[in-house]
Every structure is written in structure tokens, then in C-alpha cells.
Amino acid sequence: MNNETKAADTLKWMAWTATIVGALLFVFNVSDFRSENFPLMVSIGFLIAGMNIFLLSTVFRLMNIRKQEV
């Protein structure tokens, strides 16, 4: 397993962690839905960050495949 694959796998696990943390925070704080609810805003940030990290993981994996083809 090369470094690019390890980086992609690490990013995938970080993305899952951020998404799960965001979902848990969201479930516990959604009842008070307003902009002053800091934990709710943090949970939405974690959910968005998790999706962005998933995207980076996919990009790393695709770059690795492309490098192996060339």
C-alpha cells in the first residue's frame, strides 16, 4: 500500500468521524433551531466538512489511479 492510498484511507476515516460527530450533535440540538444555537451551527459545519473531506479522499484515490496508469 503506497502513501497516496494511505492518505485516501485516512481522509475517508476522518470524513466518517466528522460526519458522525456532526449527525450526533445535530440530533441532540435540532429542537432549538435558531442561529444563536452554537452547537447546532457546529454540527452543520461538521456535516459540511465531512462531505468535503469525502470529496478530497475521492480526489486522492483518483489521482493515485491516474498516476499508476501513466
Describe the protein.
With 70 residues, the protein is mostly helical. 84% of the residues lie in helices and 0% in strands. The chain has two helices and no strands. The protein has helices spanning 3-29, 38-69. α1 packs antiparallel against α2 (38-69). The model has no long low-confidence stretch (mean pLDDT 89).
Produce the secondary structure layout.
Layout: H1 3-29, H2 38-69
Structural key phrases:
70 residues; mainly alpha; 2 helices; 0% strand; elongated
**Gyration radius, rounded:** 16 Å
The proportion of residues forming helix, as a percent range, comes to over 70%
Instruction: Give the total of beta strands.
Output: 0
> Per the principal axes of the C-alpha atoms, what is the gross shape?
elongated
Could you say which structural class the secondary elements and strand pairing correspond to? Answer: mainly alpha
Task: Give the SSE order as H and E letters.
Answer: HH
Largest sheet: none
Mean pLDDT across residues: 89
Distance linking N and C termini: 18 Å
Uncertain segments: none
In terms of DSSP E residues, the strand content is under 5%
Helix tally equals 2
